[in-house]
Amino acid sequence: MAEMEKRKAMPIFPFLKYRSITLPPMPPILKDVDHFMESLRNFNSRESDVILCSPMKSGSHWLHEIVSMLLHQTTEYNKHGVLLDCNFECQPDWDKLEQLNNPRFFHTHLPMEYLPRKHVENEYKIIYLNRNPKDRAVSLYLFLQGKEGVPVMTWNEFFENFVVIDTIYGGWFTFTKEFENAISEKRGNILPVTFEKLKIATIPTILEIASFLGILVDDNFIKDIADKCSFDNLKKNKIDGTTSIHPEGRATLWRKGIIGDWENWFTVAQNEKFDQMYQREMKGCDVNFVYNSPKD
């Protein structure tokens, strides 16, 4: 019997340089990165549009499902497609988005300066999701390993080349500072949400999101969303679009979904080095993240 042909997966490495940032090599970006980025900036945003902005591996798929349920008043999974369907960086045809009915819900990992001009200037709704940078770094490392095109790296190698020197989408520090400064200066219509807050205070956070979106909800609906969007239920039921970037078609999106796993990976020296870098980079930026789960 002839050997089965190896599955063709979409490569996500090496990243493509654009100005001072690097981007994953999505087909629409590879075709003409300058044209693509200008099309994104000129995108015809509507007042009813909502954009979810987050660094990679901050809980984007989790919050995407929650917001989709709120916007469409349903607790059915994936009724309006997986996150990749609404991700700006994956869009092959901007004109096709004009055919979508309101409310349109989009997602991006890009920093604020690259968002659609119209959306930012007119102060349309943005949900800004973030996660403590240590857990986020570990999650990104484990997510990238084994994906098509990604070189095999130890955690130590990844730490030095992707955490200490971070250019993916401009880097976590740049992304965070841009949004935090915009919030403190009251520029734009931005709701900040953290992975940790959503994990620790799920129902109050979902209620806060519903209020921001101007959606009236009852207690039972919110509880149903919280239950359907628990980590275990999402891992069992939500479509995992990352199968397209794994050579064996494996689903690798959902791992632990916990706070504090970084302690199993960061050495004492790495933790001290990162803390020093954080203090230097985030000086003057008033934001605090939760790094450990609350004790019972």
UniProtKB/TrEMBL annotation:
Keywords: Transferase
An example molecular function term from Gene Ontology annotations: sulfotransferase activity
Superkingdom: Eukaryota
Pfam (any one): Sulfotransfer_1
Coiled coil residues, start to end: none
UniProt source species: Mytilus coruscus
Protein name stated in the entry: Sulfotransferase domain-containing protein
Gene3D superfamilies: P-loop containing nucleotide triphosphate hydrolases
InterPro entries the record matches: P-loop_NTPase, Sulfotransferase_dom
SUPFAM superfamilies recorded: P-loop containing nucleoside triphosphate hydrolases
Family of this protein: Belongs to the sulfotransferase 1 family.
Residue intervals of the Sulfotransferase domain: 48-285
PANTHER family according to UniProt: SULFOTRANSFERASE SULT (PTHR11783)
